[in-house]
Sequence to fold (82 residues):
Amino acid sequence: MKIEILGTGCTKCVALEKVVEQAVAKVGGFHQIEKVDDIMEIMKYNVVSTPGLVLDGKVVSTGKLLSVEEVVKLIEEAQKNA
Fold:
């Protein structure tokens, strides 16, 4: 699964990256984590509020810092629907 974190380096964006890393460790398996900080790339997802979380090309969250448990749930749901 490709996981993208959209953000230009704000505090919440950096924190979300750490949360995602912890969630991936809990879920296990192979996941590619990528930080997207180019504003033009972020705009391609029609995200107006960062941080954004994208799982396999689908925006699943914008504008808030998720908990580890919330990210685990989103990853598990995305895996079921894949």
Notes: The beta strands are 2-6, 32-36, 52-55, 58-62. The CA atoms of residues 9 and 21 lie 16 Å apart.
